[in-house]
Each structure stands twice: as C-alpha cells, then as structure tokens.
Amino acid sequence: MLNKNVLNSISWAKKENKLAHLYLFVGKSKNTIDLDILAFLKEINDFEINWEQPLEQIKNYDCIVLDGDQGELGKAEIEQAFYDMSLQTNYEDTNDKRIIVLKNIEKASVQALNSILKTIEEPFDNLLIILSTTKEKNVLSTILSRAQKIVSLTMSAQEIYGQLVSQGTLEPFCLVASYLADDFREAQNYSKDSFIALFDQLLAALIETIKRNNKHYLYSFLLNELTKENKQKNIFLLDSMKLITFGNVLFNDLKIKNKYLEQIKQISKELVLKFPKSIEFPLAIDAFFKFINENANFIIQKELLLLNLLEKYE
C-alpha cells in the first residue's frame, strides 16, 4: 500500500516535470501491487479508477497494460504497445503521460527487455513505463539499475479490516477474512458467501473431530475439498486451519465482539487440549505448499498431508 509520503513525492515530481521514464513496483502480493499502480495512475493522470476492477481491464487511451502471466511480454507485443502509444496525438499542451504497464516483468523475454531499455534511451514525449514483479531477484539487473523502485507494502490485517469497514462491508466474517488475506481484494473475495460457507464447514469438521472423537471426519472433509484445480480454495482452507490452530493465542487480546472470533478461540483451545500435537498442523501445511510450489505431484502431496494431519490428532 502506497503511503502518503510516496504519493506526495509522485505528485511533486509530476508538478516539477521530474518523473522518471521507468518505474518498478516490487512487493509480495500481486493484488497489492496492482492497487498501488492504480493509485499511481490516478495521481499521474487523474484516471477514473474502479478499485474493484482488475488493473489489466482498465479502459483508458492513456494506458496500455500487458501481463507476463498471460504470456503477453514477448518482444513483438511490447514493441507493438510502444508503437500504438507513440501514435497518440492528444498530448500537446498537456502534462498527461502515455503509460505502458508491464505486469510480472520477470516473465519477459530478454529481447523484450532489451526493447524496453532501448526505448528509455530515447523515449518519445510523455512516455512512462511501469513494471511490476513479486520476484525481484529474477528481474534483469540492467532493468533494476535503470528503474526507480517503488515498494508495495503488504497491509496488516487491521488495515485490511478497516478498509473493508470503511467501504461498507459489515459481514462479521470479514474480520477473519482480513487475517486470512494478503491484501484488500483477497479479503473482499474471502468475504463472499461461498468462502464463508466453506469456513463454516471446516469449523463443523473440527468440532466433529473434537467433540465426537470422529478422527476421520476432518480427513474425509479435506479429501473431498482439496483439489488440484482450485488453488485458491486450497489456500483458503489450509490457511484457515493454521489460523484456527493459533486462534486462541492470536485473538486473545483482541477486544472485538465477533461470533467467528469466539468460535475460533474456543475450537483452538479445545483442539490443543485434546490433541496437543495439533499445534504442528501449520508445519505440515507449510511443507505441503512448499512441495506443491516446487511442482511436486499434487495427489501424492495431498495424501501425505492428510496422513500427516491425521497423525497429529490420533
């Protein structure tokens, strides 16, 4: 999230005609970076911004957005973007910028990156190039040395929750969603009915395991719900398990009346009392994600995870 000092610095640079030609947004969350770029665009060209709309769907003749995740950062695509933007003729007697946003720049080809470097050597009038990445170490060193870096800071759970409330989201679960999400948009998504229902089912599975000593209920629930095709659902479910495991400690001093917090704290307390080794749930879950991110076989890793979890409460 861009702080006021950064935005003030950008505003001053625009006013004094001292904006760089090349900016690199770096952060841990792609959604947070996108929101920061939108804030940057609003500051530079006073765009009409729909904060719920993905960055790549922005509709403005001043801006072209290409995404490396969509395979759009080849040399031909980037050079076409430069050519299309150079044809814009509505920049006489104006300080507005012609902006090209290249998301996930670490996925651009070497030839494409060379085109960027060549363009900023002799940029056309009012050109501004914005790059983004969550993998700074994979970005070409020449790009890093030439770009002005802006760090997108991850929002805290309290900041995310405050923003949700300020925009009229009153659903009690949005507080939990703020702790599960990496950014505001993800928290908004997690506050939808489908994710709330999924969380309720997870709570029910844990209660069944604790109260009725049905040790295979949670195993069966996760076996059905974790699928290779739905990565976001997997992350939500397993991060929810981690949150519940430490909920009694995490939310102990939080002075907010919320039905979900009370359920989480109670289940967390009972879970650890009955199954002391359940405090190792997060370690097993982190190991699962590590292997999945290294392209290990999903079915095998899922079964290993479920067996590992089962061992913790037997």
UniProtKB/TrEMBL annotation:
Q: Name one GO molecular function term.
A: DNA-directed DNA polymerase activity
Q: Which organism is it from?
A: Mycoplasmopsis glycophila
Q: What is this protein called?
A: DNA polymerase III subunit delta
Say which enzyme class the record assigns: transferase
Keyword check for Kinase: no
Q: Is this entry keyworded Cell division?
A: no
EC number(s)? 2.7.7.7
Tell me one GO biological process term: DNA-templated DNA replication
